[in-house]
Amino acid sequence: NVLELTDNLTNYVDSFMQLFSKSVDNVTIQMTNQRDHLTIVANALNDTLRNLSILQAQIKHKTEQLLVILPENLTDVQREFQREMEAGSQLISVNYFTFIS
Description:
Layout: H1 2-100
């Protein structure tokens, strides 16, 4: 009877250990999968950060180009505007004097 009880207890402990071992294996597999997934996410975030850095450098370069080009263009626009204002002013003067006469 004691032998049977010992055998039952041994079988119970063996079954528990197998079940526990399978559970540990499953958790290990899940953790490995999560680690792999997080590695993929981290790599994607690093790629995004790298792309944002490249984009930032391109924006900075374009801005620097615009800061050189814009004043030149603004000067041209100011000159053109001044010419238009002078031409308009002369036109108004001619029309005014024509109207008065």
